[in-house]
Design a protein that fits this description.
single chain, 360 residues, alpha/beta, Rossmann fold, seven-stranded parallel sheet, two-stranded parallel sheet, globular, binds nicotinamide-adenine-dinucleotide, binds thymidine-5'-diphosphate
Length: 360
């Protein structure tokens, strides 16, 4: 089996590559990744030593390069992780999200048709369903929940999903789509909530919580996402959507407080800042379909997974410190420097620290 994994130098794609190389030693994996700010070649260092792995630096929106690679490699399966993935960045600059997430998907599917790929799998997100109210804990996203997006990021992912379904119907491209909830674990870029809070707490820096911190996310340990995708590409039904996640809901404040407790840091670091525009209230997956059809269900509870994740960030400080000392510092200044502090307990000095810390 020859598999193309796009976006494999990012968080979930790299975890998927390691999962697959170990679980299926006979598979060949080719990673196509542009190495944007979110892609890190050092993450794939260990994979590079495996003879069944090849890395290609390139853009999924580069038609010539993509078609040449498909012609050369004759892939059996394509798993598309490559995307611009951060909601806050999409609010700041939607254009790149539309290009990579929608047009990139189209080019990969055109190549999949031309070179007879047996399965095209689109890695999507529960964010395509919009959000659920905080006071209706009886409601969950199923695969039949209408698409109703909130951010340029989720709109771009939903657009790609619609295109994937259209390619199935019109061109009979054998597709599957998975829509997963919020992932956490090793190699996540420290702009996302959990690694951001771990890395900042370790440095005793203010911990930015949007609004009141009451928004709810349904957390899944990244390895379980890989396991589910492996099952879908091998046993999932062509043309189907599978939701992945389930019953690990936490408010953002609970997440931040858990990390603070685990690290033995002070709650005084929590800094409530102005909310994200259009901020989705609650995500919650109903995983009944994938459990019934493929026998998958999440086993790792949040309290266990967060301990493993914190340990990984403690054991691999060099990985994230390199990132933080680079491009990311400018990003932090830009994204958080203008956010108004709304904590009662934090003095003005905190925002100054947040805005100017790149100098420190
Ligand atoms: P990430 O931002 O960590 O990684 C994205 C990777 O894609 C990076 O390595 C980047 O270099 C690469 N990339 C970006 N543009 C590219 C292009 N034009 N050509 C080739 N490579 C390009 O993202 P992630 O968190 O690992 O998410 C991976 C996928 O999973 C995304 O499609 C995302 O929508 C989806 N998803 C993420 C989550 C989550 O919680 N992180 C949840 C559900 C679904
Ligand atoms: P994030 O990790 O960006 O994932 P997503 O927006 O895709 O769910 O954010 C998770 C939650 O944490 C989301 O409700 C926004 C919130 N958040 C903060 O409160 N502070 C932060 O600095 C960040 C990055 C996110």
């Amino acid at each position: 089996m020859n598999i193309l994994v796009t976006g494999g130098a990012g968080f979930i794609g790299s975890n998927f590559i390691y999962y697959m190389l170990e679980k299926h030693p006979s598979y060949r994996i080719v990673c196509l990744d542009l190495l944007t700010y979110a892609g890190n070649i050092s993450t794939l260092e260990k994979a590079m030593k495996n003879n069944n792995f090849r890395f290609v630096k390139g853009d999924i929106t580069d038609k010539d390069l993509v078609f040449k690679l498909f012609r050369e490699e004759k892939f059996d399966v394509v798993v598309n992780f490559a995307a611009e993935s951060h909601v806050d960045r999409s609010i700041d600059n939607p254009e790149l999200f539309l290009k990579t997430n929608i047009l990139g998907t189209q080019i990969l599917m055109d190549a999949s048709i031309k070179y007879n790929v047996k399965r095209y799998h689109q890695v999507s997100t529960d964010e395509v369903y919009g959000d659920l109210p905080l006071d209706r804990t009886d409601l969950f996203f199923t695969e039949g929940t209408p698409i109703q997006t909130s951010s340029p990021y989720s709109a771009s992912k939903a657009s790609a999903d619609l295109l994937v379904q259209a390619y199935y119907r019109t061109y009979k491209l054998p597709i599957t789509i998975s829509r997963c909830s919020n992932n956490y674990g090793p190699y996540q870029f420290p702009e996302k909530l959990i690694p951001l809070i771990i890395s900042r707490a370790l440095n005793d820096e203010p911990l930015p919580v949007y609004g009141k911190g009451e928004n709810i996310r349904d957390w899944i340990y990244v390895e379980e996402h890989s396991e589910a995708i492996d099952l879908i590409i091998n046993n999932g039904k062509v043309g189907e959507v599978y939701n992945i996640g389930g019953h690990n809901e936490k408010t953002n404040l609970e997440v931040v407080e858990t990390i603070i407790d685990e690290l033995g840091k002070s709650k005084e670091l929590i800094t409530f800042v102005s909310d994200r525009p259009g901020h989705d209230l609650r995500y919650a997956i109903d995983p009944t379909k994938i459990r019934n059809e493929l026998g998958w269900e999440p086993k790792i509870r949040f309290n266990e997974g967060i301990k493993m994740t914190i340990k990984w960030y403690l054991d691999n400080q060099e990985w994230w410190e390199d990132i933080i000392s680079g491009e990311y510092m400018n990003y932090y200044d830009k994204m958080y420097g203008d956010r108004k502090i709304i904590s009662d307990n934090i003095k003005e000095v905190a925002i100054e620290e947040m805005a100017t810390e790149k100098d420190g």
